[in-house]
Amino acid sequence: MEHYRQSVKEQRDQDRRRHEQQIQQLQAEMRQLQQSLVVKQDDITRLNQEGARLVADLSHAQKSLYEQQSHSRQLTQKFEALQAIEQHCKTVEAQLEDKDAHIKELTNQAAGAAKQAEGLAKRIHGLELTLAAAQARLETQQAMSEQLRAFMGHQEAPEAKEPAP
Question: Which of 61, 72, 100, 160 could form a disulfide with 117 if both were Cys (CB 3.0 to 4.6 A apart)?
């Protein structure tokens, strides 16, 4: 009988040690998940900052494009006014050619700014997709963490109910 009691006691001790090892492993995994979560949150913060910067850059590019288009329209009006005067003065003709070259340069600049704005819009879209994916991963990790906590809480509750030997 004493041998049986000793055997049962050893079995309980082994079970308790095995349970403690499992708890330690789960706690280590939980720490790793929390560290991963911190890294992901840092990534999200960085992506949000980069997205805000890109939005500001896009806004600046759009404003610049609008100003260049407005400037181009003004130059076009001046060009048309100079055409009426062109018949009267050779000097005005030279100025008109300079304005024409300037308009072409501004048109090229406007086209370049439009291409840049399009590229920035694509990049913002890509970053928004990356952010959405990161947020989805974060939510999944949080859900897994909550399930792990619930599981650990469920595992600890039955032990508290066991009678002491």
Answer: 61
Write out 87-117 in H/E/C secondary structure.
CCCHHHHHHHHHHHHHHHHHHHHHHHHHHHH
* Token representation of residue 160: 């508290």
CATH number where 119 lies? 1.10.287
Is residue 164 situated within a structural domain?
Answer: no
Give the CB-side neighbour count of residue 155, counting CA atoms within 13 A. 12
In a domain, 55, yes or no: yes
Domain count, the chain: 1
Would you write out the chain's pLDDT as a tens digit for each of its 165 residues?
788 889 999 999 999 999 999 999 999 999 999 999 999 999 999 999 999 999 999 999 999 999 999 999 999 988 888 777 766 777 756 776 888 898 898 899 888 888 988 888 898 899 899 999 999 999 999 999 999 999 998 876 555 455 544
Residue 16 lies in a domain: yes
Whether 100 contacts 86, CB under 8 Å: no
Q: What is the span of the domain harbouring residue 39?
A: 2-159
d(CA 29, CA 129): 29
Rounded to 10 degrees, what is the CA torsion of 135, 139, 145, 146? 150
